[in-house]
Amino acid sequence: MNSMIKRGALLSLSVLMTMPLAACMNQGGKDNETPRTLRIGTMSYSPNDEWFRQRFTELYEFANKNITIEMVPLMDESMMYGPPKEGEKQKSPMEMMKEKMTGPNPPDVVMVNFEQMPELIENNLLKQLDPMITKDKFDTSDYVPAVIEGIKKAGDGKIFALAPLFSSSALVYNKKLFDEAGVNHPTDKMTWDQVFDLARRVAKGEGKDRKYGFTFSTYNGGDNNYYSSQIYSAPLQLKMFDDAGEKMTVDSDQWEKVWKTLQGLQTEKLTPEPVDQEKMRQAMMSGNPEEYMPYQGDDFLSSKVAMAVINYHQIEQIANAMKHSQNMKNFTPFDWDVVTLPVHPEEPNVGGNIYMEGLMGVNSNAQNPDDAWDFIKFVNGEDWARLKSGGQGSLVARQKYIKPKDGAEFNIKAFTTLLPVSNPDNSKLYTEKPYIGQVAQIGQMKFQEVVSGKLQVREALKQWQTEGDAMLQKLKENPNAPIDMGTGK
């Protein structure tokens, strides 16, 4: 009898918990009886995208039992299997998306990448949401600037899509190292030059006792500086090659300035050198607790570096390390906090590495536009944000429900303030020339020669320009043929 009572109580509790969610779907005279199908186009290759369903649609389906969700893959399965055969032309993701959105049975809702929005808007393929937002008095004032202002920027001041989740990066810093050096802590929206100057002032020591000032990545497992540093250059809109992918554009004053700055970080020993992986492995395998240091693969948690660029999902690891420090030998906890990523004077409100998750709009050719908007409104509403705010790795877009977990105290607004970088969608070019990314590998090799002192910056850029032009010419003649980096053929 007791078990029956418990089951009954649990059932009642479950019903009470879901009543507010369902109730919010029964307002405004909405038809909740007539069976209908809502077609949602996703970036998946599968018509049964379980991850997307669990992430975004399950709550809506529970609250709207008359609505059947049908997934529409916007990508062709052939994209999964690498470049096309020689002589065979493959459609770009944008071309595939446009075909699906204008086809005979188009999706009502489409999930898009931020970079794709301008072209879709320009081609009138997304409905403007502002009239519906106004009509339904849907409040967007609580959205974080990183999301809503970024979306408006892509739509020339108008809203054509909404994203309920996002992830971003910030600058984490070790308060203890700053206090020991007698240097003021970093602040929000410092310029990159100001941060690099702080790095110079806080760096000290030599050899294994060296305390570094800054790193683009806490992971010290290899040559991460060249690629990680793109978060520095991204807001400057530097291009490796022209829009046609036929001519390199790296032999320029702007590229030279960026490379000299990055070179200085390494030659001045402001950023850590790659760790000896074999030595680290031997220390871990030795069984000698004196040789092994917790988090020795993490330059920030090992207190080797004063400032580091991190993604939001790393916050949990940092907080847990400090919380459980008493259980770890050879680990000393320290006070820390975060500020926004540094900015360039040319773009004082723009920071790199902001990813909008679940960015969705209403297809202009939707057969069921009302339910499409209702769904977008639902997953971007307060109830959805409240229920999803405890997730890991991503932040909800509504500021009210963004709070540090487990009592951790830090400047969480550092992750929500800066606007995303508006990079163009190059998917068509990379589809037409699948191996065009190889020109970046030339740049990496030339940069290493600069750091090692074998080349001056401008000479390295000129060589990259010349060798890259030769590679782009070969790709123009045969777009689908890989190029041997050793021979250039």
Please describe the topology of this protein.
Layout: H1 2-23, E1 36-42, H2 50-63, E2 67-73, H3 93-102, E3 109-111, H4 117-122, H5 130-135, H6 145-154, E4 165-167, E5 169-174, H7 175-181, H8 192-202, E6 212-215, H9 225-228, H10 230-233, H11 253-267, H12 277-286, E7 305-311, H13 315-323, E8 336-339, E9 355-357, E10 360-362, H14 369-379, H15 382-388, E11 395-396, H16 427-432, H17 438-451, H18 457-477
Parallel strand pairs: 1-2, 1-3, 6-7
Antiparallel strand pairs: 3-10, 4-9, 4-11, 5-7, 5-8
Keywords: Signal, Transport
Subcellular location: Cell envelope
Family: Belongs to the bacterial solute-binding protein 1 family.
Molecular structure report:
- The protein is α/β, with parallel strands linked by helices.
- It has 2 domains: 15-167 and 354-415, Periplasmic binding protein-like II (D-Maltodextrin-Binding Protein, domain 2, 3-Layer(aba) Sandwich); 169-236 and 252-339, D-Maltodextrin-Binding Protein, domain 2.
- It is built from 18 helices and 11 strands.
- Strands 2-1-3-10 form a 4-stranded mixed β-sheet, covered by helices on one side. The protein has a 4-stranded mixed β-sheet with strand order 6-7-5-8.
- Helix 17 packs antiparallel against helix 18 (457-477).
- Residues 1-29 have low confidence and may be disordered.
Q: Summed up, what is this model?
A:
This protein has 489 residues and is of the alpha/beta class.
Q: Any idea what the shape is?
A: globular
What CATH calls the topology of the largest domain is: D-Maltodextrin-Binding Protein, domain 2
Strand order of the largest sheet: 2-1-3-10
User: How many DSSP-defined strands?
Assistant: 11
CATH top level assignment of the largest domain: Alpha Beta
Quaternary organisation of the protein chains:
single chain
How far is the N terminus from the C terminus? 79 Å
Strand share of the residues? 5-15%
Largest sheet: 4 strands, mixed
User: What fraction, in percent, of the residue positions are helical?
Assistant: 25-40%
Separate helix tally = 18
Please write the string of helix (H) and strand (E) elements: HEHEHEHHHEEHHEHHHHEHEEEHHEHHH
**What is the CATH-assigned architecture of the largest domain?**
3-Layer(aba) Sandwich
| Count of folded domains | 2
CATH superfamily of the largest domain: Periplasmic binding protein-like II
| Averaged pLDDT | 85
Gyration radius, to the nearest Å? Answer: 26 Å
Which ranges are low-confidence, i.e. pLDDT below 50, for 5 or more consecutive residues?
1-29
Structural class: alpha/beta
Pfam families: SBP_bac_1 (PF01547)
GO cellular component, one term: cell envelope
Protein name: Family 1 extracellular solute-binding protein
Subcellular location: Cell envelope
